[in-house]
């Protein structure tokens, strides 16, 4: 892939390469497509990469100038990779720019929705954002969407415990592979449960 060649030409960005490689590898976990019903298409795979890059960028954001540069470089690498992938698929030069702009807008929109839902702890909002963006044509049932939301919450909280210094070296731990054993609903206190009825 292009990002591997990009890395060879920019050896100072090894940590960014490693973070991106980790995000791509996690996005390719078979469980997303086999168990969670994420569409095994270009769009579906792009959305899973976006989700995992967002989780890394979100963790790096607001953690100082060096971390901000790391987050920006990770974003830039994502779209350099997408640009090259489109060209390798035969998309013309004039169309590539338009498609990249659309994909970047999608990244920003999804990031805002995921960030707001995760920070607020609103699991309904997180499920809605995942459903709207990853399953725009349906295909996943409530249990699958709930399990995906629980996975995203788990990874988000797991990354929050990882030192920024570790991420800056290119080491990111996304935890266990996704599976339908993810709890579909976070446990709530009896009073909270009553309020949701």
TrEMBL record:
Transmembrane segments: none annotated. Residues 34-173 form the Ubiquinol-cytochrome c chaperone domain. Belongs to the UPF0174 family. It comes from Tepidicaulis marinus. Residues 173-197 are annotated as: Disordered. The lineage of its organism: Bacteria, Pseudomonadati, Pseudomonadota, Alphaproteobacteria, Hyphomicrobiales. Residues 184-197 have a biased composition (Basic and acidic residues). InterPro entries: Ubiq_cyt_c_chap, Ubiqinol_cyt_c_chaperone_CPB3, Ubq_cyt-c_CBP3-rel. This is Ubiquinol-cytochrome C chaperone.
């Amino acid at each position: 892939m292009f990002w591997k060649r990009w890395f060879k030409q920019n050896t100072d960005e090894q940590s960014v390469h490693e973070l991106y490689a980790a995000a791509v590898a996690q996005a390719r976990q078979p469980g997303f497509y086999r168990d969670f019903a994420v569409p095994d298409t270009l769009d579906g795979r792009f959305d899973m990469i976006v989700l995992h890059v967002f989780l890394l960028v979100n963790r790096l954001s607001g953690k100082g100038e060096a971390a901000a540069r790391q987050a920006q470089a990770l974003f830039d690498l994502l779209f350099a990779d997408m640009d090259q992938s489109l060209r390798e698929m035969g998309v013309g030069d004039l169309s590539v720019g338009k498609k990249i702009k659309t994909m970047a807008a999608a990244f920003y929109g999804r990031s805002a929705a995921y960030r707001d839902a995760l920070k607020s702890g609103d699991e309904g909002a997180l499920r809605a954002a995942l459903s709207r963006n990853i399953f725009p044509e349906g295909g996943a049932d409530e249990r699958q969407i709930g399990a995906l939301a629980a996975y995203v919450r788990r990874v988000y909280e797991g990354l929050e415990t990882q030192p920024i210094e570790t991420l800056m070296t290119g080491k990111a731990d996304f935890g266990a592979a996704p599976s339908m054993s993810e709890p579909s609903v976070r446990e709530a206190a009896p009073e909270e449960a009553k309020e949701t009825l």
